[in-house]
Amino acid sequence: MAIETLPFDAAQYVDTAESQAELLGDAFETGDATYITAALGVVARARGMTQVAKDAGVTREALYKALSAEGDPKLSTLLGVVKALGVNLTVTPA
């Protein structure tokens, strides 16, 4: 008998600004570009991809592509998304 699975979208579970900031903070702390991109995508979907794309100054399609598993967003896209999400990046000595 085959196991039936249901689709999972983490965006459904980060529904507060605090939980979104915690996810993004954890992702940036690791320095793993794939994790950072995925976390940005999760938070953008939780906030509404269309509005985030508009606020970031990119098309919805370009944002989906940049934040996909194969995506590698340009710095300008990254900064636009961070601003659109209303979060700040900080730098501390390693």
TrEMBL record:
One Pfam family per UniProt: dnstrm_HI1420
Domain of life: Bacteria
Lineage: Bacteria, Pseudomonadati, Pseudomonadota, Alphaproteobacteria, Hyphomicrobiales
Record-given protein name: Addiction module antidote protein
SUPFAM superfamilies referenced in this protein's UniProt entry, alphabetically: lambda repressor-like DNA-binding domains (SSF47413)
InterPro entries with a match to the protein in the record: Cro/C1-type_HTH (IPR001387), HI1420 (IPR014057), Lambda_DNA-bd_dom_sf (IPR010982)
